[in-house]
Design goal:
By secondary structure, the chain is an alpha/beta fold. The protein has 13 helices and 15 strands.
Length: 372
């Protein structure tokens, strides 16, 4: 595999990761601190025969991406907190219609307009649960510009294989942080499966872990695409318990049943010997790693690369011997609830929370929480 060494921000790395994954359509609306993704897409996509559209708002952008995906394109958008809120209905429609797409959320301090130029990690719960109804979207969390590149490619592969939206969560620290990134060639890419005949159901599968084939508009397949409850051939059925239950449980199992493919984590230390633990994700990982290096004899560090689906059984196993867990987050506490759900009530779970002003969590703060 050949690589090209580039000096990129996390936002720029996402653009090149998307292009190398085969993305040829982008629709978005500028919003700090994600705007550089849109700016670079506007420059690069036309050069390779792709399509860039600046939409009138985030509602239009997400629906344009859905339409482009059904027209056969690998498609994406990017936004930040308020824009994510506006895209939630379109994301729910994408879940129900099993539309592959990638959405990048460069998190900032909220609620509302908040601090538009300051980093935060407050969008974990909105990314998981911001839509109504029973639905599940894979969420992955890079920690560096290099991972922003690599994980964007991974996000497109997940989206194509499982016919699902995928959310990539970074924050302003990563989005605007500039580092050496290795751009790769001969990348293994996954393409969506097309029907073999008109009789193959586009919304049904014998194995719920395997996504059904996806027809492309204009290629001779007759398919109904609706956000209403529908049968395997796409016909609406908005009254039947059996139809709805079978549909939404399959949509869940398509994500949850592929836990082995979707859940990734990074481990430092030996869980069987550890008395304490640090659990973190995203940009906080750098401080957590520095803290762990100073106290590693009795401590294990778990960095969550995947935030949804969450492998609670594995997390419980990794934390089975500890008496204290520190969870540093650039919010007032969101991942900490996953940790609480994974340990015995006798285990002390302590959060290190900081949000606003662009101030990071320092290694010393994590060490202090471990020792007190």
């Amino acid at each position: 595999m050949e690589v090209t060494r580039l000096l990129l921000t996390g936002n720029e790395a996402i653009v090149y990761g998307a292009i190398d994954a085969g993305c040829r359509f982008y629709a978005g609306y500028p919003i700090t601190p994600s705007s550089e993704i849109m700016h670079l897409m506007a420059k690069e996509l036309p050069r390779i025969g792709g399509v860039f559209i600046q939409a009138e708002d985030e509602l239009a952008a997400i629906n344009m991406v859905v339409g482009a995906s059904w027209a056969g394109a690998k498609a994406m958008t990017a936004t930040s907190g308020p824009g994510l809120s506006l895209m939630q209905e379109g994301l729910g429609y994408a879940v129900m219609t099993e539309t592959p797409l990638v959405l990048v959320d460069v998190m900032r301090a909220g609620p509302a307009t908040g601090q538009a130029t300051k980093p935060a990690q407050g969008d974990v719960m909105p990314a998981r649960w911001g839509r109504h109804g029973d639905q599940y979207i894979p969420i992955i969390a890079p920690a560096t510009p290099q991972e922003a590149y690599d994980y964007t490619i991974w996000a497109f592969n997940i989206a194509e294989e499982l016919r699902t939206p995928v959310i990539v969560l970074i924050d302003e620290f990563i989005g605007h942080g500039r580092e050496v990134v290795f751009r790769k060639t001969n990348i293994k890419l996954i393409e969506r499966r097309k029907p073999r005949s008109r009789d193959e159901p586009p919304f049904g599968s014998d194995d719920p872990r395997i996504a059904p084939p996806m027809p492309v508009f204009g290629e001779g397949f007759y398919v109904m695409v609706t956000g209403s409850t529908h049968k395997p051939m796409g016909y609406r059925d908005v009254h039947s318990f059996e139809t709805h239950y079978k549909l939404v449980t399959r949509l869940k199992e398509k994500i949850w049943g592929n836990m082995d493919k979707l859940f990734k984590y990074e481990l430092h230390g030996e869980p069987e010997k550890a008395e304490k633990a640090i659990v973190c994700f995203g940009s906080v990982y750098r401080s957590a790693l520095e803290a762990w290096k100073k106290v590693k004899d009795d401590t294990v560090l778990i960095r969550l690369n995947t935030l949804w689906p969450m492998n609670y059984d594995l997390l419980k196993k990794l934390l089975s011997n500890v008496s204290r867990v520190v969870v540093p987050e650039l919010n007032l506490g969101q991942i900490i609830y996953d940790v609480m759900a994974s340990v015995d009530v006798s285990v002390q779970v302590k959060g290190v929370h900081k949000v606003g002003g662009g101030i990071p969590i320092y290694p010393s703060e994590i060490i202090n929480a471990l020792e007190r």
